[in-house]
Amino acid sequence: MGYCIERWYLAVTIRCVLKQGIPVTVTKFAVPLGCLINMDGTAIYFPIVVVFLAATQGIVLNAADYIIVILLSTLASIGTTPIPSSSLVLVVMIASRIGVPITGMYAVVIAIDWFLDRFRTALNVSCDTFAARIVTHITKIQDDEGVAYDEAENVDPNAMGRREGDAKV
Fold first, then answer.
1. Tens-digit pLDDT profile for the chain (169 aa)?
2. How far apart are CA 63 and CA 19, in angstroms?
3. Where does residue 72 fall: left (phi above 0), alpha (psi -120 to 50 degrees), or beta otherwise?
4. 65 touches 55 (CB < 8 A)
5. N or C end of the chain: smaller count of CB under 10 Å?
6. Using CA atoms, how far apart are residues 146 and 132, in angstroms rounded to an integer?
7. Cα(29)–Cα(24) distance, rounded to whole angstroms?
8. Are 53 and 109 in contact (CB under 8 A)?
9. What is the pTM of this model?
10. Are 9 and 124 in contact (CB under 8 A)?
């Protein structure tokens, strides 16, 4: 059984971002922070599922309901736990807040959530790499002399570009 949780791919994401030439300082800041709070895929998923549940039951949402869904989706995506399908619990919370009952159509969402989770994770991870690139571009931060990522010399993924004997930053 495969799980698709962004936090499990943090080491791989860091290595890929470093290979792109992003400074170690920016990588150590932007990628873990993005892994925690930059859940774009999840923030998009919540409103889609809630509106789907409402539409399949014939419930018409007004503008206030959409605003509540957007705000709760944004906040809930930041607080999503790194547990497979944990977003299903938050969907129930958001739907119940705007008066959408959880009925049989929720079973359809549960049945395909494992598949949709792969796309959410791909979007979240790619947005983390884009954020690291943008932070580098805006701040113009560069690595100190002698600190660079070298795949051949860096067999330890936790070294993050440092070689034996380098001072830890």
1. 345 566 677 888 888 888 888 888 888 888 888 888 878 888 899 999 999 999 999 999 999 999 999 999 998 888 777 677 788 888 999 999 999 999 888 999 999 988 888 888 888 888 889 999 999 999 988 877 766 655 545 555 555 555 555 555 4
2. 45
3. alpha
4. no
5. N
6. 21
7. 9
8. yes
9. 0.73
10. no
Q: With the C-alpha atoms ordered 30, 32, 37, 42, is the resulting torsion angle positive or negative?
A: positive
CB-count exposure of residue 107 (10 Å: 0-12, 13-18, 19+): exposed
User: In this structure, are residues 11 and 154 in contact, taking their beta carbons and an 8 Å threshold?
Assistant: no
* CB of 73 closer than 8 Å to CB of 46: yes
Report residue 82: phi and psi, to 5°: -80, 55
Structure tokens at 151: 């795949």
Let me know: does 77 contact 34? Beta carbons within 8 Å. Answer: no
Is residue 85 within 8 Å of residue 141, measured between CB atoms?
Answer: no
What distance in Å separates the CA atoms of residue 135 and residue 139, rounded to the nearest whole number?
A: 6
